[in-house]
Amino acid sequence: MWIYDKKLEYPVKIKTRNPRMAKYIITQYGGPDGELAASLRYLSQRFSMPTKEAKAILNDIGTEELAHLEIVGTMVHQLTQGVPAEIMEREGLGDYYSDHDHAVYPLSAAGNPFTAAYIQSKGDPIADLYEDLAAEQKARATYENLINLADDPDVIDPLRFLREREIVHFQRFGEALRIVQDRLAQKAFYVKKPDFMGK
Amino acid sequence: MDMNREKLLRELMAADFAVIDMNLYLDTHPNDQRAILIYNVLVQRAKMLRDNYERLYGPLTPMTPSKCPFEWINEPWPWQRHYSPFAL
Ligand SMILES: [Fe+2]
Q: What is the ipTM of this complex?
């Protein structure tokens, strides 16, 4: 279970509205490499992890990703709050405004709504951990793209924090992968599913 | 949010983040005795800062005794602009 903690993991205090930047940043809310996908991916995969270290790291990183989802949603909210319709439209959010007004809705920068097809949960711990390593790299790259697009220090600062967390998560998933591979006692680069009967 | 509250919140956020990060490290290094010692100190410090903040400014989790009216629903919520302290 989870209990809400009434604070962010990292502060977000954006003084200047910038709907165009919100349109880009929202991709880390509901896009293919976003925080919602990350959280669901890890929290779903944890059920089939074979070692206590892997169960714990997926549980705890999946939980931290929920805090990141909240940070990204907060950024989108603060960047768009109260911006008049004609400015939303001028800044490229006419489509978004039509359907969602100033609400926060999970979609990608290109406007594709969130889908579970962004994630996998394969029941094979090696396959899942490799996916997680790739997911962290893709999220890091996305944050770098967003930082390149941003010019406001109030926006760049939390984006930098989120980018750094992806690097830490990548490191921890790498350690978990090594532990799982040792546990499965195979030196092979690819290890078959533990319950595979060799039929 | 007044300056003292911002300062205390900022300290608590930093202290809790240190715990979160050390927790992830220990998930994959459960036998690192020195790291566990550091973790225990960080947890104690975060708990102290949390208790102090909640005593002054109300509940951070909906599992805290309340006065009437129910204090949990008090604004600001963390996504509101005037909630967050300035960047760490
Ligand atoms: Fe991550």
A: 0.94
